[in-house]
Amino acid sequence: MGTLNHLSLGWLTPVLSYLMACAGAALGLRCTLRAMAASGPARRNWLITAAAAIGSGIWTMHFVAMFGFTVDGTELRYTVPLTVLSLAVAVLVTGLGLTVVCHGRHRGLSLLSGGVTTGLGVAAMHYLGMAAVRMHGGLHYDAGTVALSVLVAVGAATAALWAAVTIRNVYAAAAAAMAMGLAVSCMHYTGMAAVHVRLDPTRAGLDGASPMEFVFPLAVGLGSFLFLASAFVALSPTAQERAGYREAGEPVVEEFSAEAPGADPARPERTPTEAEAGHREAGHRGVGRQDTGRRDRAA
Questions:
Q1: DSSP per residue over 12-52, as a string?
Q2: Neighbours of 24 (CB within 10 A)
Q3: How far apart are CA 184 and CA 27, in angstroms?
Q4: Per-residue pLDDT, 244
Q5: What distance in Å separates the CA atoms of residue 280 and residue 41, rounded to the nearest whole number?
Q6: Pairing of strands 195-199, 4-5
Q7: For residues 291 and 283, what is the distance between their CA atoms, to the nearest angstrom?
Q8: Which of 129, 157, 229, 286 is the most exposed place for a label (fewest CB within 10 A)?
Q9: How far apart are CA 173 and CA 27, in angstroms?
Q10: Per-residue pLDDT tens digits for 156-206
Q11: Is 208 left (phi over 0), alpha (psi -120 to 50) or beta?
């Protein structure tokens, strides 16, 4: 049996991986909120962005945490195709869950279906990522702990989707993203607690890429995207929030009626048509003739 160490770099990897999960959740929740308020191609685009954010956030969290995972007596490498596949699974299955929630007619059933789908996708991403690990030996899992990690993933996904379709306040959404980040981190370390390693004494070379050759550059790129996109989306209010600002007393530009075009000094006066100008001129002449007749009778 190999000796496992999940914190070989101290608390740096757990904290940094938690921040990655929070960033992906925050961006995904905000994009889902915009998808719920949109329709047509706009809704589709927001859902794609939300799926990419949540999926890549979960994937980045997993592999940043894996930088702190070591096994005494062997080096660790990663199979590139399986690593990329785990990222694609996280994004695609998350997108499927979000689509079920946004387009479902029965809210409770849609949340349950979307949560189960997304949670299974998160678990599949985790164990695909573990299947990509190459070492001088093999990985074995405790079945009960694996089942517990899947339940944690499903619960975390369901809670996140509920927050996505329910929460409208920015601060509440930030709290929900932090809670989701914690739940995803708990799922990861629960799954890692199920791992046992049996070392093989052979010293044959390992295939695959080292973490610094492949995983680290991809994780840094995805992490930068998440933080920059999260800042941009978080600072732009939704339509509901704009309406809330107006109700709170923000000035709202109102339309003015055509009968009083000069009521708004910033609004240019409408040029009358020829027919309107003729009617007005005829009316002025009629008023002038009535005034002349009154003056003649008075004289």
A1: HHHHHHHHHHHHHHHHHHHHHHHHHH--THHHHHHHHHHHH
A2: 34
A3: 15
A4: 56
A5: 49
A6: unpaired
A7: 12
A8: 286
A9: 10
A10: 888 877 877 776 677 777 787 888 888 888 889 999 988 888 887 766 677
A11: left
Q: Are 133 and 75 in contact (CB under 8 A)?
A: no
Are 76 and 238 in contact by the 8 Å Cβ rule? The answer is no
Count other Cβ atoms within 10 Å, centred on residue 4.
Answer: 15
pLDDT, residue 148, reads: 93
Closest to 17 in 3D by CA, of 61, 47, 77, 51:
61
Q: How confident is the model at residue 272 (pLDDT cuts 50, 70, 90)?
A: low
Least confident residue range of 16-30, 45-59, 115-129, 209-223: 209-223
Pairing relation of β-strands 77-78 and 137-141? unpaired
Distance CA 264, CA 254 (A): 10
Closest CA to 129 of 81, 200, 178: 81
Q: What is the mean pLDDT of residues 275-279?
A: 51
Strands 133-134 and 195-199: unpaired
